[in-house]
Amino acid sequence: MEPENRKVQRLHDRIQQAAYSLISDAHRADVHLRIGRVLLGSMTSDQLAEHLFDVANQFNQGVAGLIDRGEKVQVATVDLRAGRKAKASAAYASRRVRRIWKLTKQFWRSWDLPASRCQSIALR
User: Fold this and answer.
1) Which residues contact 115 (CB under 8 A, 6 or more apart)?
2) 25-54 residue pLDDT tens
3) 84 near 58, Cβ under 8 Å?
4) Distance from CA of residue 112 to its chain's centroid?
5) Cα 34 from Cα 58, distance rounded (Å)
6) Which of 34, 77, 22 is nearest to 42 (CA)?
7) Which of 6, 78, 83, 92 is deepest in the core (most CB within 10 A)?
């Protein structure tokens, strides 16, 4: 049986999809741009850092509506920060993968297995 909070989340997602489908394609970019503006204007710098990807995503879906040069620079700055955050996150994940791979090789080598055999076993 599905927990109640998962049922509510699924229902919420369906309602959100239905509401989104009522917005014409021509107006979706405007809606995303407005959402991005509201989010950016209402968040503290700490909140923005926490929700950077969400804000950047809204602006990126509404980028066609950007006219003001100052706002374009502001959105570009949000995108740059989001890109740096994503890159840092990927670098961290990559370091973790390399560390895990190193430990895996050390483990299998302790069994006197060649590196190619360690890799084939680790990738299963």
Assistant:
1) 105, 109
2) 879 999 999 999 999 999 999 999 999 999
3) no
4) 41
5) 8
6) 34
7) 78
What are the extents of the domains in the chain? 4-122
AA identity, residue 87: K
Residue 101, burial from CB neighbour count under 10 angstroms (0-12, 13-18, 19+): middle
Task: State both tokens at 1.
Answer: 């049986």
DSSP per position, 7-66:
HHHHHHHHHHHHHHHTS-HHHHHHHHHHHHHHHHHH--HHHHHHTHHHHHHHHHHTGGG-
Instruction: Report which residue type is found at 104.
Output: T
Q: How many CB atoms lie within 10 A of CB 36?
A: 25
